[in-house]
Structures are given as C-alpha cells and as structure tokens.
C-alpha cells in the first residue's frame, strides 16, 4: 500500500509541513501518527506508514525536521548520514516538534477516512516525542520504541491519562540500566505498559538496521498493534 506526501498546516505563521501518508480502503479507520527517528522520513519510516495503513490505520509521518531541513532521508548505516542525524537532533526544538505532531493528529482526525481517534507511535527520538505527545497533545494512545531520555520526565507521568506503551532494549547504550530501572519503577499506573527486551540493542525494530532483531521486533509490534486496536 503506497503512500504520498501531503501538506499539514502548522500552528502560527510558520507554514506548511510535509507528511508521508497512506490510507486504507473505506472509512471509519483509526488514525496513527508515526514519529521518525533522527534520520528523517526515510525508507524505514515510509515502510512503517504503509504497513500500518495495510492494517487499516489512516497513517502519516510528519517531516518534523522541516524547519531545519525539509525532506531529510538519512541512512543510519552510513557514518556520515548517521552523524548528520545526530547533528539535526541537536538543533531540533522539541516543544515546537510537539506542536507539529499535534497539527498532524488534527489533520488525521479531520480526514474523511478517519473515525476521529488518533494514536502516536515513535522510534528513538520519536519514542521520546511519543511520550511527550502523551503529555502535550490530544492523542488517544501513545507507543514508544526505545525512547531516549524518558527517565528525565518521569515527574510528569501522573499527567498522562492515555494508554502508553514503552518498548525498551535491554542493551541500549542510550538508555542505561539505571534509566531503565527508573522508567520501570516510575511508570506503574494502570495506563502504562513497559516492556524490556533482553539481549537486544537500540534500534532493534528497524528492519533496515544493523541491530534488527526479528523476534523482539515481532513481539513488540504485536503488542503495539494489540494496544492500538483496543484503544482506537
């Protein structure tokens, strides 16, 4: 199921943001915002959009780096492009990114094929932003894959009321054991579900990446789909 680029109207006078979107056949489908890693709306993110559209979600991935450099598509397996992604992350304004994610949520809610409910699902930087979106947007459900720095925002967890699922890689150098323990201990309310996947590294669900682990990715994806279907 192929997608296409659409234009999302953002808040304020900042203009139009691109988003890669794919829609299922028919109407009454839930919406899902896919939030990129630091590598832009690349082949992995576009394939993820198409996969969820094939599972009957109105799906879109906003180009959240558009204010810095529109149309970023980086290959994390190439050192120069990996480093460029890290550089862009350092320049990226996360609160403004949350505004852009909200604009994408609103666009999907208003789409004629959508039933009005919209979730967010993100990887790496996008996993962090999915947690922030659970706090700062009107999303109905949030899914985070190996989100970075979530342990620094646990004091706000009580403000999250929507179902929120976190997938954590046990061997993630960006989320060390003490951070994993803090997340596990800090997110114990009924609306949180935290899973730590043993023996896998950051990026284990990116099928184009060197740390891809098919078994862990399939299990995480099954859990994600089950929650999205129940919540949306």
TrEMBL record:
Superkingdom of the source species: Bacteria
Boundaries of every Dienelactone hydrolase domain copy: 17-230
InterPro entries cross-referenced by the UniProt entry: AB_hydrolase_fold, Dienelactn_hydro, Dienelactone_hydrolase-like
Listed GO MF terms: hydrolase activity; protein histidine kinase activity
Keyword entries, A-Z: Transferase
Entry-linked Gene3D superfamilies: alpha/beta hydrolase
EC assignment: 2.7.13.3
Protein name as annotated: Sensor protein ChvG
Annotated organism of origin: Candidatus Micropelagius thuwalensis
Gene that this polypeptide is encoded by: chvG
């Amino acid at each position: 199921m192929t997608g296409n680029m659409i234009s999302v109207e953002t808040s304020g006078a900042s203009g139009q943001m691109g988003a890669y979107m794919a829609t299922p056949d028919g109407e009454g489908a839930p919406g899902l915002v896919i939030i990129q890693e630091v590598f832009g709306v690349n082949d992995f993110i576009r394939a993820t959009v198409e996969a969820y559209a094939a599972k009957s979600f109105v799906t879109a991935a906003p180009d959240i780096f558009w204010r810095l450099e529109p149309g970023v598509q980086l290959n994390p397996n190439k050192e120069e492009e990996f480093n460029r992604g890290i550089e862009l992350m350092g320049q990226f304004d996360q609160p403004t990114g949350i505004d852009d994610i909200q604009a994408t949520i609103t666009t999907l809610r208003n789409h004629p094929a959508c039933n009005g409910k919209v979730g967010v699902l993100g990887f790496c930087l996008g996993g962090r932003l999915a947690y922030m979106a659970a706090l700062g947007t009107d999303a109905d459900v949030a899914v985070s894959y190996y989100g970075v720095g979530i342990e620094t925002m646990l004091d706000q967890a009580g403000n999250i009321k929507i179902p929120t699922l976190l997938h954590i890689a046990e061997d993630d150098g960006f989320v060390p054991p003490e951070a994993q323990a803090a997340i596990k201990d800090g997110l114990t309310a009924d609306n949180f579900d935290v899973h730590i996947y043993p023996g896998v590294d950051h990026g284990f669900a990116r099928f184009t990446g060197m740390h891809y682990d098919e078994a862990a990715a399939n299990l995480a994806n099954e859990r994600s789909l089950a929650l999205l279907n129940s919540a949306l």
